């Protein structure tokens, strides 16, 4: 069976949404129509009997507009204030929309310390498992309100891959502002070639990762997505990078339609996540 045909059989799915995929390009404010489509897509996956975890950026973006910032705040204290206001507002919107589809959402805020500490990680896994056993859709974000450089992941691509590994997810979907992996930045090089399937993450492919998203909204570029692919595939999780311009792409991906770049899972390395988190602890 083709790798894409197998996607319909995935039972535990993590979906990561970048800030740029949630916002109107013209204003940077939340695109409520897109958000409603996202919730409907996830709710339908739940109705198919699948576990779904949503890793959602957007807290600082929402808080920025609520508090009247015209540009993305630069001071750590300003970012934390925006995150505090924005996370509460974003969750309120998610809760309201999921309730319309008879689904229950729960909030899980994480820092790097949550994962690198053995006891915290054990408790986090138990929390995720209990939420999913109760039919809840966990909505995950980095805890930007209290995060500092020493305890932050810094991007939700890495966070989503670690969460996928933690909960033994079958599939990780990263939705961003790009169709997938190219041989160069397609915003700058029109001759860049699209890569459909990545069977091996060699150094040549890693060098294709750029530290730019093409927007001033998010914090993760292609480099962080390739790092996420390393973590997810080593944990036995298939991963897809796809364009989040239209959230209907979620059910199209699950049906096996040819969108995005897919990174097939490797044989699960039971110690990879622990080793990776040990390295993070020292960064």
From TrEMBL:
It is found in: Cytoplasm. It is an enzyme of class 2 (transferase). One of its GO terms (cellular component) is cytosol. It catalyses: L-glutamate + ATP = L-glutamyl 5-phosphate + ADP. GO terms for biological process: L-proline biosynthetic process. Its EC number is 2.7.2.11. Gene3D superfamilies: Acetylglutamate kinase-like. InterPro entries: AceGlu_kinase-like_sf, Asp/Glu/Uridylate_kinase, G5K_ProB, Glu/AcGlu_kinase, Glu_5kinase, Glu_5kinase/COase_Synthase, Glutamate_5-kinase_CS. GO terms for molecular function: ATP binding; glutamate 5-kinase activity. PROSITE patterns: GLUTAMATE_5_KINASE (PS00902). ATP binds at residues 16, 176-177, 219-225. Pathway: Amino-acid biosynthesis; L-proline biosynthesis; L-glutamate 5-semialdehyde from L-glutamate: step 1/2. The keyword Chloroplast does not apply. Keywords: Amino-acid biosynthesis, ATP-binding, Cytoplasm, Kinase, Nucleotide-binding, Proline biosynthesis, Transferase. Its main location: cytoplasm. It holds the Pfam family AA_kinase. Residues 11-243 form the Aspartate/glutamate/uridylate kinase domain. Substrate binds at residues 57, 144, 156. It comes from the Bacteria. CDD domains: AAK_G5K_ProB. Belongs to the glutamate 5-kinase family. Catalyzes the transfer of a phosphate group to glutamate to form L-glutamate 5-phosphate. This is Glutamate 5-kinase.
